[in-house]
Amino acid sequence: MIQIKKIFLMIFLGFFLSHCGYNEIQRRDEGVKSAWAEVLNQYKRRSDLIPQLVKVVEAFAIQEKEVLIKVTEARSKVGTIQATPELINDPQAFQKFQQAQGELSSALQRLLVVVEQYPQLKSDANFRDLQAQIEGTENRIAVARRRYIEAVQDYNITIRVFPNVITAKIFGYVEKPQFQVENQADLEKPPEIKINTDKK
Predict the structure, then answer these.
(1) How many whole angstroms separate alpha carbon 99 and alpha carbon 77?
(2) What is the Cα–Cα distance from 147 to 27, expressed in whole angstroms?
(3) How far is CA 99 from CA 35, 88, 91, in A?
(4) In 20-124, alpha helices (H)
(5) Nearest to 158 by CA among 28, 37, 10, 59
């Protein structure tokens, strides 16, 4: 009788363990880590290009010192945040990281707007090469972020469905944070519509 109970217990445990979602959670978790590593890789690539860009712009537009300082400070702020794989498990640290990257993106955009005033700089081969590399990197960042968003969505859904939710709670798996829209406040404002009331 005890032997039969052991056999049933083994069958039950085998069935439970093969259908509890643990392996699926592991696969999704690794997918998130891989996608996050690519996001960090592209952000690092952009960060590595900035000193060269600042140096080239400085040679042509030294009077734009304030804009150059803002870019340098934003890059420095990004550098103070430890971008580890564990960052995606800490929503507050993730938000700080995202905010710092957003500030760097804004500073870079302002710099590239200022550059429009300097035809000599725009025609410089070094600047054009760096600008192309930064634009390419921005595109890669967008793709990497989209892949991360999709991986996190898959992971978060996986740990919330039954029976995976039980396994996730037992092993301490929690939802991972998502990227937020950087200009959320601007997007929430209704568009300003101007109606021409002048009658001809």
Answers:
(1) 10
(2) 15
(3) 19, 14, 12
(4) 22-60, 65-80, 91-115, 119-123
(5) 28
Distances 8 to 17, 18, 163, 190 between C-alpha atoms, Å:
14, 15, 21, 63
Burial tier of 136 (Cβ tally within 10 Å: 0-12, 13-18, 19+): middle
2-174 fold = de novo design (two linked rop proteins) (1.20.1440)
173 band by pLDDT with thresholds 50, 70 and 90: very high
For the chain, what are the domain ranges?
A: 2-174
| Amino acid making up residue 197 | T
- For 32-73, write each residue's pLDDT tens digit: 999 999 999 999 999 999 999 999 888 888 778 888 889 999
How many whole angstroms separate alpha carbon 26 and alpha carbon 16?
Answer: 16
The whole-angstrom separation of Cα 32 and Cα 178 is: 11
Q: Which of 173, 162, 61, 171 is nearest to 117 (CA)?
A: 61
Number of CB atoms found within 10 A of residue 120's CB: 10
pTM listed for this prediction: 0.77
Of 61, 54, 143, give the one whose Cα is nearest residue 107: 54
**Which tokens is 112 given?**
């590239």
The number of CA neighbours under 13 Å toward the Cβ of 119 is 0
Number of other CB atoms surrounding residue 122 within 10 Å = 13
- Number of CB atoms found within 10 A of residue 89's CB: 15
